[in-house]
Design a protein that fits this description.
76% of the residues lie in helices and 0% in strands. By secondary structure, it is mainly alpha-helical. The protein has one domain. It starts with a helix and ends in an 18-residue tail after the last helix.
Length: 92
């Protein structure tokens, strides 16, 4: 290669490297914004999971036998004095 060809080769190499660097920076900027959105969504998801756990605990507390009996008594219902155990056949 003569001197002119070598200069052209180096110039094109510099241009290609510069373009690749700019593309890399653009991808990096896009990735940062995607990562930030992902972190925010993870935080919201964690809050929703905590809220769901609280709601499930309230459901379990409200459906407990003692609570149901108290509601029944407040409505004027009486607790049964004798319980009957009726066996049923298991189907196989």
């Amino acid at each position: 290669m003569n001197k002119k060809q070598r200069i052209i080769f180096y110039a094109w190499t510099y241009v290609v490297i510069s373009i690749l660097a700019i593309i890399g920076l653009i991808i990096n900027i896009k990735t940062v914004s995607i990562n930030e959105k992902s972190r925010k969504m993870q935080h919201v998801l964690q809050e929703i999971k905590q809220e769901n756990e609280g709601v499930q605990l309230k459901i379990m507390e409200s459906s407990s036998l003692n609570n149901i009996e108290q509601i029944g008594k407040s409505m004027g219902l009486e607790t049964p004095k004798k319980f009957f155990n009726i066996p049923y056949a298991h189907s196989k």
